[in-house]
Amino acid sequence: MGATTVVTTRERLEDVAGRIRRAVEITEGDQGASPVLVAVVAELGRKSAKALESLSAGDATATTARECVVEVEQAADSAKTGAEADTGASDATREAVSDAHLAICLFKAQTNQD
Question: What is the pTM of this model?
Fold first, then answer.
C-alpha cells in the first residue's frame, strides 16, 4: 500500500497565509503600485495573520472559523479588485495578489466540503 498524505486544515491555512504574505511583500516592493493598493493588500495581510492566530488557538468554534475565512476572503476580493484597477502595479504584483485571492477561495471551498 502507498503512503497517504493527509493535509490538515491548519496546513492549508498556513499555505494560504504564505501566499498572502508573498503578495504583501511583492506589493510593498512594487514602486509602481499605488499607496491605496499597498494599503489594501497590507490589510489583507493583517486579516490573514489575525485569522491564522485565531484559528491556531485551538478553541475556535466552527462559527469563528467561518467568520475568519469570510473576513479574509472579503479582504482578498478587495485586494484583487484593487490590483486589477491599479494601472501602475506590475504584473508580478497582480499575479501575487490574484494567487492569494485564489488560495483563500479554494481554501473556503475545500473547508466547506470537509
Answer: 0.88
